[in-house]
Amino acid sequence: MIKPLRSYALAALLLLIPWPQGAAASGADLSPPEQVIQGVSDELMHVLREDRRLLETDPAYVHRLVDRLFLPHVDFDRVCALVLGPFWRDATAEQRRAFQQAFKDLVVNTYAHAADELSAWEIRYLPVRASTRPDRVVVRTEVLRPRGNPVAVDYRMVRRDGRWLAYDVVVEGVSLLTNYRSAFTGIARERGLGGLIAELERRNATRTASQTSE
Questions:
Q1: Number of domains in the chain
Q2: pTM attached to this predicted model
Protein backbone atom coordinates (compact mmCIF):
# COMPACT_ATOMS: atom_id res chain seq x y z
CA MET A 1 0.00 0.00 0.00
CA ILE A 2 1.28 3.48 -0.89
CA LYS A 3 0.81 5.79 2.05
CA PRO A 4 0.26 9.48 1.25
CA LEU A 5 3.18 10.56 3.45
CA ARG A 6 1.18 13.69 4.25
CA SER A 7 3.37 14.82 7.14
CA TYR A 8 6.51 14.44 5.05
CA ALA A 9 4.95 16.45 2.22
CA LEU A 10 4.96 19.33 4.66
CA ALA A 11 8.74 19.06 4.91
CA ALA A 12 9.60 18.26 1.31
CA LEU A 13 8.15 18.50 -2.15
CA LEU A 14 9.74 15.87 -4.45
CA LEU A 15 12.58 15.69 -1.89
CA LEU A 16 13.28 19.43 -1.78
CA ILE A 17 10.97 21.81 0.06
CA PRO A 18 12.85 23.78 2.68
CA TRP A 19 10.62 26.00 4.78
CA PRO A 20 10.95 29.80 4.69
CA GLN A 21 13.90 31.04 6.70
CA GLY A 22 13.67 33.80 9.24
CA ALA A 23 16.59 35.57 10.90
CA ALA A 24 19.12 32.81 10.38
CA ALA A 25 22.42 32.85 8.53
CA SER A 26 22.85 35.23 5.62
CA GLY A 27 23.62 33.89 2.15
CA ALA A 28 27.26 34.89 2.54
CA ASP A 29 27.56 32.68 5.63
CA LEU A 30 26.21 29.57 3.90
CA SER A 31 28.03 26.87 1.98
CA PRO A 32 27.12 26.37 -1.72
CA PRO A 33 24.68 23.49 -1.03
CA GLU A 34 23.06 25.51 1.76
CA GLN A 35 22.73 28.44 -0.62
CA VAL A 36 20.68 26.24 -2.95
CA ILE A 37 18.22 25.55 -0.12
CA GLN A 38 18.25 29.22 0.88
CA GLY A 39 17.39 30.34 -2.64
CA VAL A 40 14.43 27.96 -2.84
CA SER A 41 13.36 29.08 0.64
CA ASP A 42 13.30 32.73 -0.40
CA GLU A 43 11.14 31.98 -3.44
CA LEU A 44 8.81 29.79 -1.41
CA MET A 45 8.40 32.59 1.13
CA HIS A 46 7.34 34.88 -1.70
CA VAL A 47 4.81 32.30 -2.91
CA LEU A 48 3.34 31.88 0.57
CA ARG A 49 3.06 35.65 0.94
CA GLU A 50 1.76 36.57 -2.51
CA ASP A 51 0.07 33.47 -3.95
CA ARG A 52 -1.21 31.56 -0.92
CA ARG A 53 -4.75 31.26 -2.28
CA LEU A 54 -3.52 29.77 -5.58
CA LEU A 55 -1.33 27.35 -3.66
CA GLU A 56 -4.34 26.11 -1.71
CA THR A 57 -6.95 26.05 -4.49
CA ASP A 58 -5.25 25.56 -7.86
CA PRO A 59 -3.54 22.16 -8.41
CA ALA A 60 -2.33 23.32 -11.84
CA TYR A 61 -0.48 26.18 -10.14
CA VAL A 62 1.25 23.70 -7.84
CA HIS A 63 2.42 21.68 -10.85
CA ARG A 64 3.84 24.82 -12.45
CA LEU A 65 5.53 25.75 -9.19
CA VAL A 66 7.24 22.37 -8.99
CA ASP A 67 8.57 22.64 -12.53
CA ARG A 68 9.85 26.18 -12.02
CA LEU A 69 11.05 26.22 -8.44
CA PHE A 70 11.93 22.74 -7.23
CA LEU A 71 12.71 20.27 -9.99
CA PRO A 72 15.77 22.19 -11.27
CA HIS A 73 17.38 21.53 -7.87
CA VAL A 74 16.59 17.81 -7.67
CA ASP A 75 18.58 14.97 -9.21
CA PHE A 76 15.37 13.29 -10.27
CA ASP A 77 17.02 10.57 -12.35
CA ARG A 78 19.01 9.56 -9.29
CA VAL A 79 15.91 9.67 -7.09
CA CYS A 80 14.01 7.34 -9.41
CA ALA A 81 16.96 4.97 -9.73
CA LEU A 82 17.39 4.74 -5.95
CA VAL A 83 13.65 4.37 -5.32
CA LEU A 84 13.24 1.48 -7.76
CA GLY A 85 16.65 -0.21 -7.35
CA PRO A 86 16.90 -3.28 -9.60
CA PHE A 87 13.54 -2.51 -11.20
CA TRP A 88 15.00 0.73 -12.57
CA ARG A 89 18.04 -1.04 -13.98
CA ASP A 90 15.84 -3.55 -15.81
CA ALA A 91 13.28 -0.99 -17.01
CA THR A 92 12.97 0.07 -20.62
CA ALA A 93 13.37 3.74 -21.57
CA GLU A 94 9.60 3.99 -22.00
CA GLN A 95 8.96 2.49 -18.55
CA ARG A 96 11.44 4.89 -16.97
CA ARG A 97 9.72 7.89 -18.52
CA ALA A 98 6.30 6.64 -17.45
CA PHE A 99 7.46 6.01 -13.89
CA GLN A 100 9.13 9.41 -13.61
CA GLN A 101 5.95 11.17 -14.68
CA ALA A 102 3.70 9.11 -12.42
CA PHE A 103 6.05 9.53 -9.43
CA LYS A 104 6.29 13.28 -9.96
CA ASP A 105 2.51 13.58 -10.18
CA LEU A 106 2.08 11.51 -7.01
CA VAL A 107 4.29 13.79 -4.93
CA VAL A 108 2.85 16.97 -6.42
CA ASN A 109 -0.70 15.80 -5.73
CA THR A 110 0.26 14.94 -2.16
CA TYR A 111 1.75 18.39 -1.73
CA ALA A 112 -1.25 20.12 -3.26
CA HIS A 113 -3.52 18.25 -0.85
CA ALA A 114 -1.40 19.37 2.11
CA ALA A 115 -0.85 22.98 1.00
CA ASP A 116 -3.42 24.37 3.42
CA GLU A 117 -1.14 23.35 6.30
CA LEU A 118 1.85 25.38 5.12
CA SER A 119 2.98 28.15 7.45
CA ALA A 120 5.88 30.58 7.63
CA TRP A 121 8.15 28.55 9.84
CA GLU A 122 11.82 29.38 10.26
CA ILE A 123 14.77 27.17 9.43
CA ARG A 124 18.04 26.92 11.33
CA TYR A 125 21.13 25.57 9.60
CA LEU A 126 23.32 23.16 11.55
CA PRO A 127 26.92 22.24 10.69
CA VAL A 128 27.08 20.50 7.32
CA ARG A 129 27.90 16.80 7.53
CA ALA A 130 30.71 16.17 5.07
CA SER A 131 31.09 12.91 3.19
CA THR A 132 34.16 10.90 2.31
CA ARG A 133 33.29 11.84 -1.27
CA PRO A 134 33.74 15.51 -2.20
CA ASP A 135 30.62 15.42 -4.38
CA ARG A 136 28.28 14.39 -1.54
CA VAL A 137 27.07 16.33 1.48
CA VAL A 138 24.26 16.34 4.03
CA VAL A 139 22.77 19.76 4.78
CA ARG A 140 21.37 19.59 8.29
CA THR A 141 18.57 21.91 9.41
CA GLU A 142 15.99 22.35 12.13
CA VAL A 143 12.51 23.63 11.31
CA LEU A 144 11.37 26.01 14.04
CA ARG A 145 7.62 25.96 14.51
CA PRO A 146 5.45 28.56 16.30
CA ARG A 147 4.27 25.73 18.55
CA GLY A 148 5.99 22.45 19.27
CA ASN A 149 9.56 21.23 19.23
CA PRO A 150 12.00 21.85 16.36
CA VAL A 151 11.83 19.29 13.54
CA ALA A 152 15.11 17.88 12.23
CA VAL A 153 15.22 17.95 8.41
CA ASP A 154 18.37 16.83 6.58
CA TYR A 155 18.96 17.16 2.84
CA ARG A 156 21.21 14.67 1.10
CA MET A 157 22.81 16.37 -1.87
CA VAL A 158 25.13 15.48 -4.72
CA ARG A 159 27.23 17.76 -6.92
CA ARG A 160 26.68 17.15 -10.60
CA ASP A 161 28.16 19.27 -13.40
CA GLY A 162 29.13 21.90 -10.85
CA ARG A 163 25.64 22.14 -9.30
CA TRP A 164 24.39 20.86 -5.96
CA LEU A 165 21.21 18.79 -6.31
CA ALA A 166 19.03 17.14 -3.66
CA TYR A 167 18.18 13.45 -3.87
CA ASP A 168 16.76 12.66 -0.43
CA VAL A 169 15.31 14.40 2.61
CA VAL A 170 15.32 12.88 6.08
CA VAL A 171 12.65 14.11 8.50
CA GLU A 172 13.26 13.22 12.15
CA GLY A 173 15.48 10.35 11.06
CA VAL A 174 13.01 8.98 8.50
CA SER A 175 14.11 9.02 4.86
CA LEU A 176 11.50 9.78 2.21
CA LEU A 177 13.60 7.83 -0.26
CA THR A 178 13.48 4.75 1.96
CA ASN A 179 9.73 5.13 2.51
CA TYR A 180 8.97 5.35 -1.18
CA ARG A 181 11.38 2.52 -2.02
CA SER A 182 9.73 0.20 0.49
CA ALA A 183 6.26 0.92 -0.87
CA PHE A 184 7.16 0.90 -4.56
CA THR A 185 9.35 -2.18 -4.66
CA GLY A 186 6.74 -4.13 -2.73
CA ILE A 187 4.14 -3.42 -5.41
CA ALA A 188 6.64 -3.99 -8.24
CA ARG A 189 7.51 -7.44 -6.85
CA GLU A 190 3.85 -8.40 -6.80
CA ARG A 191 2.62 -6.81 -10.03
CA GLY A 192 5.72 -5.92 -12.00
CA LEU A 193 6.91 -2.43 -12.90
CA GLY A 194 3.96 -1.96 -15.25
CA GLY A 195 1.61 -2.74 -12.39
CA LEU A 196 3.34 -0.18 -10.16
CA ILE A 197 3.08 2.51 -12.82
CA ALA A 198 -0.60 1.71 -13.34
CA GLU A 199 -1.21 1.94 -9.57
CA LEU A 200 0.48 5.35 -9.36
CA GLU A 201 -1.51 6.61 -12.34
CA ARG A 202 -4.74 5.33 -10.78
CA ARG A 203 -4.02 7.11 -7.50
CA ASN A 204 -3.09 10.30 -9.32
CA ALA A 205 -6.32 10.24 -11.31
CA THR A 206 -8.35 9.69 -8.12
CA ARG A 207 -6.60 12.53 -6.31
CA THR A 208 -6.97 14.88 -9.26
CA ALA A 209 -10.66 14.11 -9.52
CA SER A 210 -11.18 14.78 -5.81
CA GLN A 211 -9.31 18.09 -6.00
CA THR A 212 -11.36 19.17 -9.02
CA SER A 213 -14.63 18.42 -7.24
CA GLU A 214 -13.68 20.39 -4.11
A1: 1
A2: 0.80
